[in-house]
């Protein structure tokens, strides 16, 4: 029996690249959803809700499996989104410098009406950044389309002293947990 077709509910090239590590090449169908946090919604509840919402909002046939995710960078309980501009990116990176923060990803897998969701946490510890390092990284242009203003998969890796948890979570899709969720809907991507 053939595996069901896979749909990625995200325009993120990083998520598609992560799935390609597993030889998965889904059709990309990013949904349009309101990602505004609820008034008293904590970061874990936010990523869980948004991942499920994206999975449900993505058009798919009953035989297709949808993978959706939402990743947030959290410092001192506050969600750091994508920087608005260079000054905002610099402020985020200065706040992260020499400190630990969390990266949370909600990942959802839907097959028909059934949605399975998990939230994955990774602690990221930044090195203490010099002004020259900060300027160098801002000049790469990398911070501007990434939550928290950095990307582990690119030049931003030099900012990180260490990780506690999943590196693929920080990039945007925790692969180990995604594989488990796919198994819940009958898709075992690791079988020979």
Detailed description of the structure:
With 192 residues, the chain is α/β, with parallel strands linked by helices. It has a single domain (6-184), classed as Maf protein, CATH 3.90.950.10. It contains 6 helices and 7 strands. It has helices at 13-20, 43-57, 86-96, 131-140, 167-171, 175-184, and strands at residues 6-8, 27-28, 65-75, 78-80, 100-111, 114-126, 160-164. Strands 1, 2, 3, 4, 5, 6 and 7 form a 7-stranded mixed sheet that branches. The longest helix is centred in the first third of the chain and has 15 residues, at 43-57. It is globular. It starts with 5 loop residues before the first strand and ends in an 8-residue tail after the last helix. The mean pLDDT is 94.
Count of strand segments = 7
- What profile does the largest beta sheet have? 7 strands, mixed
Q: Give average pLDDT, whole number.
A: 94
Give the number of helices. 6
Work out the radius of gyration: 17 Å
The total tally of domains equals: 1
CATH topology: Maf protein
> What is the chain-wise order of helices and strands?
EHEHEEHEEHEHH
Helical content band: 25-40%
CATH architecture verdict: Alpha-Beta Complex
Instruction: Enumerate the spans where pLDDT stays under 50 for 5 or more consecutive residues.
Output: none
Layout of secondary structure:
Layout: E1 6-8, H1 13-20, E2 27-28, H2 43-57, E3 65-75, E4 78-80, H3 86-96, E5 100-111, E6 114-126, H4 131-140, E7 160-164, H5 167-171, H6 175-184
Parallel strand pairs: 1-2, 1-3
Antiparallel strand pairs: 3-4, 3-5, 5-6, 6-7
């Amino acid at each position: 029996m053939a595996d069901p077709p896979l749909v990625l509910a995200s325009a993120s090239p990083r998520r598609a690249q992560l799935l390609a590590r597993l030889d998965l090449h889904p059709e990309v169908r990013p949904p349009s959803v309101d990602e505004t946090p609820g008034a008293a919604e904590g970061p874990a509840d936010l990523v869980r809700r948004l991942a499920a919402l994206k999975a449900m909002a993505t058009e798919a046939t009953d035989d297709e499996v949808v993978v959706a995710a939402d990743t947030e960078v959290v410092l001192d309980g506050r969600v750091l989104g994508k920087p608005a501009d260079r000054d905002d990116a610099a402020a985020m990176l200065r706040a992260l410098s020499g400190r630990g923060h969390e990266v949370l990803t909600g990942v959802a897998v839907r097959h028909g009406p059934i949605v399975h969701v998990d939230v994955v946490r990774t602690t990221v510890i930044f090195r203490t950044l010099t002004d020259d390092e900060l300027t160098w990284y801002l000049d790469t242009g990398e911070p501007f389309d990434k939550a928290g203003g950095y990307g582990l998969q690119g030049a931003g890796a030099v900012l990180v002293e260490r990780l506690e948890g999943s590196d693929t979570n920080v990039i945007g899709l925790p692969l180990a947990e995604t594989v488990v969720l796919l198994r819940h809907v009958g898709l075992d991507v690791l079988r020979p």
